[in-house]
Write a structure and sequence with these properties.
The structure holds two protein chains of two kinds.
Chain A lengths: L4 H6 L13 H14 L1 H20 L6 H8 L3 H9 L9 H30 L7 H4 L4 E7 L4 H13 L6 E5 L2 E8 L6 H22 L1 E8 L5 E7 L5 E19 L5 E11 L9 E6 L4 E3 L2 E10 L5 E8 L4 H12 L4 E5 L4 E2 L5 E8 L8 E7 L5 E7 L5 H5 L4 E9 L2 E9 L3 H20 L3 E9 L5 E9 L3 H19 L5 H33 L1
Antiparallel strand pairs in A: 1-20, 2-3, 3-19, 4-5, 4-18, 5-6, 6-7, 7-8, 9-10, 10-18, 11-12, 11-17, 13-14, 14-15, 15-16, 19-20
Chain B lengths: L1 H25 L3 H41 L5 H9 L7 H22 L5 H18 L17 H29 L6 H19 L3 H6 L3 E3 L1 E4 L2 E4 L1 E4 L2 E4 L1 E3 L3 H19 L1 H16 L2 H18 L2 H11 L15 H26 L7 H8 L5 H8 L1 H22 L1 H7 L3 H34 L7 H22 L5 H23 L13
Antiparallel strand pairs in B: 1-6, 2-3, 4-5
Helix pairs in contact in B: 1-2, 1-5, 2-3, 2-4, 4-5, 4-6, 6-18, 6-20, 7-9, 7-13, 7-16, 9-12, 9-13, 10-11, 10-12, 13-15, 13-16, 16-17, 18-19, 19-20
Classes of the chains: A alpha+beta, B mainly alpha.
């Protein structure tokens, strides 16, 4: 960045210092340092990163390498090129990693190069302006005032600066007076906070990728405990990661809306840890957005799978009511979940009086009446009768069939395997801290702006004073322009308007002429004095 | 649904405001302009209440669904949680309506702050697009209970910031375009015309599905069908993979190829000033020694890779015409330039008109009996299905054509337009601040998305196409901000990046839904 010299003097952070020294290694060091510090590299790297992301969006990253190979094998060069560039796994490919590394190096170098300078600059701001520095300032009020006005100037400057910030300072050198004030001085570090935050996020992600676990477990409800996690590794290959404890799913429940779409699903999980004294060491019901956490691992409810095989039917069996009192009993019985019997086809449900009910056949569609189950009743003396109960008509058996018991068909109980996403993200806190820092930095960088004001009162040779009131803002120039114009108005009211450009040019010309004359006179004096020394 | 009807009323309000703003261009009275702003604000308030009411409606539906499924009566806090968990931005219809809300919000703020004429017209046109799609029936406006993954409070912040952020980006692009027209001493309208033609030449082949257009000479529309009452891509499973059905649009293919060629030529010729500059820079690099030579080649290859052979052809054109001194252009295209520009605009218009005409008149899909039967189930009139199947392509066609139209108007009525616009500096400032806001809000989108994904799926970042799309949008604006600081790209270059940012938003935000990229998890808009 080639900033004009006056600006560099005002903001030394923009300049890249040279390490000094010469020779090949010094030159190499200097050149490479310049390379990694340059903001041009940043722009190029961000662009490459965006381009890489677009490439990754075009190729389906969820497919495995084999599936991609099948698609690419139309031409050998295509296959070789795509495999070399790892298009099946763009975001973990060598070249994408290289670009991210470049960005990290760039951010680090920029921060190392500039942040200390900014810090020093914040702690020791430029309190007095030289004429050279004044050239780099856009907002200024400059006027020649008489010696009598000196105290008024100082009072007015103090009054104005009082409202402009907390870092006020003033000093005098002889008859000269300098004052300085600034606001939001730390806002300048905002950009670097964002960069450090990005580095933290990148580091945290990288560390998580290499030390964390991200896989799936399919656990069949009611079956044994499992400790094997299926992890999709680099290149789309899957491998198994074994936990040092086991997870068991005792029950899986799926609630659906009336149209059959899933509303909620949850699993009761138990953790068995051989290192623990009491087992199961933990029990929890997990739902989407409500995971279980154990030993740094988090278990998220992710999906479910029905298990093909024997279906269980749910029958509720209650005693028929014959009088008013028993009617209440029947209602109670129907409401009690304990009277729902979940049985497989062929299993018998034994009643206290010796009667038994056996579901013998599932009828998916009973002539337009919906699902039904054929049930056999085996009475205590061994006679067998058979009847059908319907899922959609719970009162059918009560109304149509006579007998001591009423049988209702509640539905099927499908067995499921619950899909549990297993994650271990040991560095997640670094990433989240990075998020917070990023927003802090962005707030400071975008919404706060360092504003500096200088006042300078220097005595001229002719006894009058050169009064300069200058301001600079790092951001939001337009807002600052308005603010400064108000200050300017106040100053103009007190001391009169600034001299116009014409007047200033005239004054400058006169000054130059005077200087020239002085120089010529000095040169003449030297000529005169020269021979005397001999 | 009461809220959908209410939204239609609000859309009518926006349309009225649009009419008032357009009328204000002819009758330049401050009172008319104020009236337009007031009507917009009223419609905006109406939409806000409509959204609140829709939230209430969705809450009742959620409650009913939960109570019916679990057979319980919810009370107290539990009732409140279920009632409030379904915000009015949970499916593509609602997202589009919400985007319109965001754009109007950004416009109203900019109206208060900068008072930029035209900003209202653009913002209202863009805001009306989703309402138009809704009235066609392309988006399903019914409320369905939320799927479990969306039941999180993070989606509130996530979606609000994406709506406002992307709207701010769009507004930034609008202001950038206005800046390019206003900045007379920085950019000629000839070059701007070339730029819009270059963009058309770049986007038309994408709409025509690239190589297929040139090999078959045909423009085809991917057909949607009603599967159980929902619009889904129609197709059949062949050889184990799903192959969508296509409907040929007769005549469009040839016209589109002609349009691409003419736009390309117009871009090469009209932008010759830019090519001369580029050629000069490359020559300078080339002369600076071996490392410069390498970077010159790299830069040339990268630029050509990005924009096709447009820059290369442009530079050859400039070189054969005798270099930079021959390439000075007048502000408005004259002579051959003028003919080229209007020819390109005419062919683009004809192409779009033919696409629309075909869609409107198509009665016969020429599909197999089996497919026709499958589509016949609950399908609307063929023309309507055709338009719906083509809706996103049509929208993009209209955006490109709208850009061409605006530049055409600018060329014809340059002085009138320029006096109406505020100063270039103010436009540039407006674009800069809106894009700054867009950048900050897209960062919020990324972070809240990551947090939500972490709590719902157990990973905060999965390189899902939609996530990556948002990241690309963010990176684009990062480039905008960094080049402004680094290279001092204030004005024309940063305005160009700002306009391209709008297309990156479309690609990153809608591209996934349009099937340009691989499928992802954000499947709320799979039509």
């Amino acid at each position: 960045m080639a900033a004009p010299k006056s600006q560099v003097e005002l903001d030394p952070e923009g300049a890249i210092t040279d390490s000094g020294g010469s020779g090949f290694f010094h030159a190499l060091h200097r050149e490479s340092w310049h390379f990694f510090c340059s903001l041009k590299l940043t722009v190029v790297v961000i662009f490459l990163l965006a381009a890489g992301c677009v490439v990754g969006m075009f190729f389906d990253q969820t497919l495995t390498l084999e599936e991609h190979r099948a698609e690419w094998s139309s031409a050998l060069w295509k296959l070789r090129l795509y495999e070399f560039l790892e298009f099946h796994d763009v975001f973990h490919s060598w070249w994408f990693g290289f670009v991210v590394l470049l960005l990290a190096l760039n951010l680090t170098a920029c921060s190392i190069e500039r942040l200390p300078k900014i810090w020093i600059d914040i702690q020791n701001p430029i309190r007095t302006l030289t004429d050279q520095q004044l050239l780099g300032i856009r907002y200024m009020y400059r006027k020649t005032v008489s010696a009598a006005e000196r105290d008024t100037v100082i009072d007015v400057v103090r009054a104005i600066l009082k409202a402009k910030g907390r870092h006020r300072s003033e000093h005098t050198e002889g008859s000269s007076f300098f004052a300085f004030n600034e606001r939001h001085r730390y806002a300048r570090t905002g950009v670097y906070l964002v960069h450090i935050a990005l580095l933290m996020i990148m580091f945290g992600s990288m560390a998580t990728t290499y030390t964390g676990v991200d896989g799936m477990m399919m656990i069949v409800e009611g079956s044994g405990a499992s400790d094997s996690v299926r992890v999709k590794g680099p290149g789309g290959f899957t491998y198994h990661h074994n936990l040092d404890f086991k997870i068991r799913c005792t029950d899986f429940r799926l609630k659906t809306f009336v149209d059959g779409s899933p509303m909620e699903f949850e699993s009761d999980l138990e953790v068995y840890d051989p290192a623990a004294l009491v087992n199961p060491v933990m029990k929890k019901t997990i739902q989407v957005n409500h995971p279980l956490e154990y030993k740094g691992y988090t278990f998220y409810q992710a999906s479910y799978n029905p298990i093909p095989g024997d279906q269980l039917v749910q029958l509720d069996i209650c005693k028929r009511a014959t009088n008013e009192a028993e009617l209440v009993e029947l209602e109670q019985c129907k409401a009690d979940a304990r009277n729902i019997h979940t049985v497989a086809i062929g299993d018998r449900v034994q009643m206290p009086d010796g009667t038994a009910f056996v579901p013998v056949e599932i009828i998916r569609q009973y002539g337009g009446l919906g699902g039904a189950v054929r049930v056999q009743r085996i009475s205590a003396d061994g006679t067998i009768t058979s009847f059908v109960v319907f899922r959609n008509y719970p009162k059918f058996d009560e109304k149509v069939r006579r007998g001591r018991y009423i049988v209702g068909f509640r539905g099927f109980d499908q067995q499921y395997a619950t899909g549990v996403q297993v994650g271990r993200v040991p560095w997640i806190n670094v990433v989240f801290a990075g998020f917070i820092l990023m927003f802090l930095g962005m707030y400071m960088a975008f919404f706060m702006s360092q504003r500096r004001y200088w006042a300078r009162l220097v005595e001229r040779d002719d006894g009058s004073f050169d009064f300069v009131f200058a301001g600079a803002a790092r951001r939001h120039q337009y807002a600052f322009e308005e603010e400064f114009s108000k200050v300017k108005e106040t100053l103009s009211e007190v001391f009169g308007a600034e001299p116009s450009v014409k007047e200033r040019a005239k004054a400058l010309r006169e000054q130059r002429q005077k200087e020239q004359a002085a120089r010529a006179k000095a040169a003449k004096d030297q000529d005169k004095s020269g021979p005397v020394d001999d | 649904m009461v809220s959908t009807d209410w939204f239609t009323v609000c859309a009518a309000g926006y349309a009225l405001a649009l009419f008032i703003f357009i009328f204000n261009l002819v009758q330049k009275k401050a009172s008319i302009r104020r009236l337009g702003t007031v009507v917009t604000s009223l419609a905006f308030l109406g939409q806000t209440t409509g959204m609140a009411f829709r939230w209430h409606e969705a809450g009742l539906i959620e409650l009913a669904a939960v109570e019916r499924a679990a057979d319980v009566q919810l009370e107290g806090m539990a009732r409140w949680v279920v009632y409030s968990q379904h915000p009015p931005w949970s499916n593509l219809y609602e997202i589009m309506v919400f985007m319109a809300w965001g754009i109007i919000l950004v416009f109203l703020v900019s109206e208060v702050k900068w008072r930029i004429r035209f900003a209202g017209i653009f913002a209202l046109i863009i805001a009306l697009i989703p309402f138009g799609l809704v009235s066609l029936g392309g988006l399903d406006g019914t409320i369905k209970p939320l799927v479990p993954a969306l039941q999180s409070w993070w989606i509130m912040i996530h979606v609000i910031s994406s709506a406002v952020g992307y709207s701010a980006g769009t507004m930034g692009a609008i202001l950038s375009l206005l800046y390019l027209i206003k900045a007379k001493d920085k950019l000629s309208l000839t070059a701007l015309g070339g730029g819009v033609m270059a963009l058309s030449a770049f986007l038309f082949p994408i709409l025509g599905r690239g190589t297929e257009l040139f090999t078959s000479g045909q423009y085809r529309v991917k057909l949607l069908g009603y599967v159980e009452g929902k619009l889904e891509p129609a197709g059949a499973v062949i050889d184990g993979s799903f192959k969508p059905f296509y409907v040929p649009s007769p005549g469009v293919g040839i016209l589109l190829i002609v349009a691409i060629v003419i736009c390309y030529v117009a871009a090469v010729v009209l932008m010759r000033g830019a090519w001369a500059k580029l050629l000069g820079k490359l020559q300078q690099l080339w002369r600076s020694g071996p490392p410069g030579m390498i970077s010159a080649v790299v830069v040339a290859v990268v630029i050509n890779g990005l924009l096709g052979f447009l820059p290369l052809l442009g530079m050859i054109f400039v070189a054969t015409r005798g270099g930079a001194e021959q390439t000075s252009v007048s502000d408005r295209p004259e002579g051959l330039d003028r003919i080229l520009f209007f020819a390109a605009f005419a062919v683009s218009t004809a192409t779009l008109a033919l696409v629309l005409f075909n869609a409107m008149t198509q009665t016969d899909f020429q599909l197999s009996a089996e497919t026709a039967q499958r589509l016949a189930h609950g399908a609307p009139a063929p023309w309507r299905l055709h338009v719906l199947s083509n809706q996103w392509d049509l929208a993009l066609f209209f955006i490109i054509w709208g850009g061409q139209l605006f530049v055409t108007i600018a060329i014809l009525k340059a002085d009138t337009l320029r006096t109406m616009l505020p100063s270039a500096e103010r436009l540039d400032r407006g674009a800069y601040y809106t894009i700054l806001i867009a950048f900050a809000l897209v960062a919020v989108v990324l972070v809240t998305g990551a947090l939500w994904a972490h709590y719902a799926w157990g990973r905060y970042w999965g390189w899902d196409p939609k996530e990556t799309g948002a990241l690309v949008i963010w990176l684009t604006y990062a480039i905008y901000l960094h080049t402004r600081v680094t290279y001092g790209w204030v004005g024309v270059p940063s305005a160009v990046i700002g306009i391209l940012g709008f297309f990156v938003i479309i690609a990153g935000f809608l591209g996934v839904n349009l099937g340009w990229f691989a499928d992802g998890l954000h499947s709320y808009g799979s039509s």
